[in-house]
Amino acid sequence: MLLKQHSQMGWILSIALASLGVCITPAAQSAETEVVPAIDATHGVALEGYDAVAYFLDHRPIRGSDAYTHSWNGVTWKFTSAEHRDLFAANPAHYAPQYGGYCAYAVANRTTAHGSPKQWAVVSDRLFLNNNALAKKLWDRDQPGHIRAGDQNWPQIPKRATSVDSSQRE
After folding, report:
1. Any idea where the domains of the chain sit in the sequence?
2. In this structure, are residues 35 and 50 in contact, taking their beta carbons and an 8 Å threshold?
């Protein structure tokens, strides 16, 4: 009986979270059936144009500039300075957000959703994004567990190479 009640509570929680929009957006993809771009990029630009290096050096999200860009993994990355651009270019895998910039809470739960550059955390020198404030709050409740699950799930999510073409640019 207790197991049945626990299962029902899990189902109710899932419905409640979905109704609140926790990582369940039109862009959400099933990890088992849908192929997603390797990098979550809007119009061919990673992190919605925010500077990936700024999270590590300035400890906050800062919009990058069209004057300082770098192409990596088929998308454009923007930076606030030539120094930040050059640091990223020398080691992009270090500065790029985990799970291709998708929501860390969603990936921990075997799906994907857009990662918001304003819902972020640097944990053990790795950048993680979440879809919204509620997803981040839920992810924060068990960062180590969610990171373990995300690290395990991310390789299982089918991905295609990200390519930038004129139809993706604004």
Report:
1. 2-164
2. no
Structure tokens given for 50? 């925010």
Spacing of C-alpha 116 from chain mean position? 7
**What mean pLDDT is reported for the chain?**
84
Which ranges constitute the DSSP H helices of the chain? 2-20, 52-57, 82-90, 92-95, 104-108, 133-140, 143-153
Q: Are 75 and 67 in contact (CB under 8 A)?
A: no
Backbone angles phi, psi at 2, to 5 degrees: -60, -40
Neighbouring CB atoms inside 10 A of 53's CB total 23
Higher pLDDT, 140 or 33: 140
- Please give the backbone phi and psi of residue 29, each rounded to the nearest 5 degrees, phi first: -125, 150
- For residue 44 the two structure tokens come to 């061919």
Query: Would the pLDDT of 148 be above 80?
Result: yes
